[in-house]
């Protein structure tokens, strides 16, 4: 419930309170270049070919690349507001801690989910460049 409430609060803040900070001139990333391949991959590589499993797999794959539009915007403009960099850093840290969770679960429970682990590694790798810039600045 806390996670869902925080997600709704984030969306509310983005579309209501901080709507004026959106820069449409620099936001040229084509999201369909993420959604279409991720949708196709979720149909091809999943645990069970059922609607809920495909939707779960789609959400895992999409979450792993969802940061690309923001990273594209930062690299295009060469700058970002402090609050944005802190948000991205902690979002990446949250995902990196997922990797620790999977190692823990494998070691103590013998549980291993290849789809979730690969998606988590991809997302963490995408954050590595941002982490380096965040720490050095």
Automatic annotation (TrEMBL):
Mind listing the GO biological process terms from this record?
protein retention in ER lumen; protein transport; vesicle-mediated transport
Cite a single Pfam family from the UniProt record.
Answer: ER_lumen_recept
The molecular function terms in GO held by this entry are:
ER retention sequence binding
Question: Could you list the residue ranges that cross the membrane?
Answer: 54-75, 87-108, 114-135
A cellular component term, taken from the record's GO annotations = Golgi membrane
The UniProt keywords, alphabetically, are: Cytoplasmic vesicle, Endoplasmic reticulum, ER-Golgi transport, Membrane, Protein transport, Receptor, Transmembrane, Transmembrane helix, Transport
State the membrane topology.
Multi-pass membrane protein
The record's section on PROSITE patterns has:
ER_LUMEN_RECEPTOR_2
Q: Does the keyword Acetylation apply?
A: no
The cellular location(s) given in this protein's UniProt record come to:
Cytoplasmic vesicle, COPI-coated vesicle membrane; Endoplasmic reticulum membrane; Golgi apparatus membrane
Q: What InterPro entries has UniProt attached to this entry?
A: ER_ret_rcpt
Family named by the database record: Belongs to the ERD2 family.
| Name used for this protein in its record | ER lumen protein-retaining receptor
Quick one: which gene encodes this? Answer: Kdelr2
